[in-house]
Amino acid sequence: MDEKHTKHRKKGGIKAAFEELVAKLVAYGEVMVIYIQKNLQIYIRNLVLSSVWIFTALFLIFLGLIYISYGVYLSIQKFLAAGDPILSSFGTGFGFLIFAIFFLSLVLKKK
C-alpha cells in the first residue's frame, strides 16, 4: 500500500499533496467545531447553574444583613424592653447568614 500511495503522490505531485492537506484540514475543522459546540453547551449550562446558586446565596446574605440591621434598629428603639421582636430579628438574620455561607461553600466546592 505504501508503494501505491507514493506512486499516487508522484503522479499528482504538489497539487495532489496540497489537496490532501486541505481535505485533512477541513475534516479537522469540522471535528473541532463539533467538539467546541458540545463542550460550549456544557460549559454555559454549568456557568448558568452555578451563577444562579451564587446569586441566590448572595441574596440570602443581603437578606440576613437587612434582618440584622433591623434588629439593631429595634434594640436601639426599644433599648431595654422585653425583646421578643429583637431576638426574632437577630435569630432570623443570623440564620439566613449561616445558611447562605453554608450554601456558598457547597457551591464553590463543586468548582
From TrEMBL:
TM regions (residue ranges): 47-70, 90-108
This protein's UniProt keywords: Membrane, Transmembrane, Transmembrane helix
Name of this chain's protein: Uncharacterized protein
Organism of provenance: Leptospira bandrabouensis
